[in-house]
């Protein structure tokens, strides 16, 4: 029994010693972990402080630049980029295209002494439409519309009232009134005149466009069809575009003959350009 007691006591001391070693090791490991954690915390805080300082410096630099731009009232052409803690100015990247030269002005029809310009025809149409919306006007009023200082070619400035009466009286109808649309159509000259085949081809086009078979076309349908003449997009020797008189005439013809609903009877329209004694038999 004495031997057993001595063995138990020895084992107890050995266990206590081992437990003390484990405790000491644990304390050492915990101390090392605390020191590493404290070191990492200090490194993180220092990094956060440096990062925050860089971000604030970048923001400050950007604000100073923008302040200078605002005060100088100049546009910012380069790309200004604030990404995280980096503020950069990319001189090779443009925020918007630099100002470009404005497009050239639309070509203008130069007036000639003996030909009505498109603008003059349109001005006459507006005036006649205002005083005689029915399309018929008295001879006296029509003569008055063509007397100076009306917006007319130079050669018309020397025409007397008597000459105007003789000229317009040919268009008098049984009611003693004149269809001013016919008069305006004569003002569009010079214009290529169609032959019979061209008139037939044109009316065939519009009949195909006129799906409802009403005999009428609106502005879109009228523009869709091709007349016997086409526009001329010429270029002058200095490289500028020339005025396309024929192209504008096509639109002007529609304006002269359309009704209040902005539609045109295409057969009646084409009959105006017939020279046959019985034009109705042609179309």
How many β strands by DSSP? 6
Number of helices: 9
Task: Encode the helix/strand succession as letters.
Answer: HEEHEHHEHHEHHEH
Mean pLDDT across all residues, rounded? Answer: 80
Strand content: 5-15%
Main structural class: mainly alpha
Description:
The structure is a single chain. The chain has 283 residues and is mainly alpha-helical. 52% of the residues lie in helices and 10% in strands. The protein has nine helices and six strands; from the N terminus they run αββαβααβααβααβα. It has helices at 2-72, 118-131, 139-145, 161-168, 180-187, 196-209, 219-224, 245-257, 266-271; strands at 78-83, 86-94, 136-138, 177-179, 216-218, 263-265. The chain has a two-stranded antiparallel ribbon. A hairpin with a 2-residue loop joins strand 1 and strand 2 (86-94). Helix 2 (118-131) runs parallel beside helix 8 (245-257). The longest helix is centred in the N-terminal third of the chain and has 71 residues, at 2-72. The chain is elongated. The N and C termini lie far apart (145 Å).
